[in-house]
Structure to design on (160 residues):
């Protein structure tokens, strides 16, 4: 493993978020939960989960419960590559459930406030094709979507 990993700041609920992500993303698990030290820390009472280490598809991630001093936003997102439309649909459904917020062009915020991009591999393939006009049409179609749909993007690419 490398020496660089994401560090996510939660007001509270870092352990629940890590458990949720580990249940949704294959090859993921919560690896350690460190309680707040005696006397606690700002945003986290003594003995409550303070630092949560987990892996997402084998990538190490650290989360912290540290109160409302900083907030997750769309400037940082997890990029989730999906093999087909069924996978896009499944991840979209589970990540927007229970208070998640669908966004534009495949972006969403889950119920814990973390932003995700749920992207079919086919979009990555379309964007690298040599037909610039077809790519432009596919991009224009994508810009009208919330959850990404492969079929309309492929149709837009081909309609020339």
């Amino acid at each position: 493993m490398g020496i660089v990993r994401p560090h996510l700041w939660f007001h509270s609920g870092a352990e629940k978020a890590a458990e949720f992500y580990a249940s949704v993303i294959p090859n993921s698990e919560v690896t350690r939960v460190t309680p707040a030290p005696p006397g606690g820390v700002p945003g986290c009472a003594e003995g409550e989960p303070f630092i949560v280490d987990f892996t997402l598809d084998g990538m190490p991630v650290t989360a912290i419960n540290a109160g409302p001093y900083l907030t997750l936003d769309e400037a940082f997102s997890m990029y989730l590559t999906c093999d087909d439309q069924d996978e896009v649909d499944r991840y979209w459904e589970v990540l927007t459930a229970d208070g998640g917020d669908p966004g534009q062009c495949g972006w969403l915020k889950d119920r814990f406030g973390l932003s995700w991009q749920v992207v079919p591999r086919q979009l990555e393939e379309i964007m690298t094709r040599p037909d610039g006009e077809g790519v432009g049409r596919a991009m224009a179609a994508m810009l009208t979507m919330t959850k990404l749909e492969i079929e309309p993007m492929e149709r837009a690419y081909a309609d020339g």
About this structure: The radius of gyration is 18 Å. Residues 72-160 form a domain with the 2,3-Dihydroxybiphenyl 1,2-Dioxygenase; domain 1 fold (CATH 3.10.180.10).
